[in-house]
Design brief:
Blueprint (H helix, E strand, L loop, with lengths): L5 E3 L1 H7 L5 H8 L3 H8 L7 H10 L4 H4 E3 L3 H4 L2
Antiparallel strand pairs: 1-2
Length: about 80
């Protein structure tokens, strides 16, 4: 399990947008396919700028693509 508190729906969005490949998405947002793989598998959190670029490709909001799930220590006062 990853320690990354950001999850995403990129795989589902790619499938719903003509079964877009990871490589196609990577080219559209200006990163490598490996970066998309890492983000999709929640091993890497994208920059804010990249998150917006990904959302724009799918014509949706950042919140529809990415979800922040705080760790247990972040939710305690």
């Amino acid at each position: 399990m990853s320690d990354c508190p950001i999850t995403n729906t990129i795989r589902k969005l790619r499938f719903n947008h003509g079964e877009m490949t990871q490589d196609e998405l990577a080219k559209k947002v200006g990163v490598t396919r490996q970066t998309i793989i890492a983000i999709e598998s929640a091993k890497y959190s994208p920059s804010l700028e990249l998150a917006f670029r990904v959302a724009r490709v799918f014509d949706t909001t950042v919140e529809e693509v990415f979800t922040y799930q705080p760790t247990e220590t972040e939710t305690k006062p």
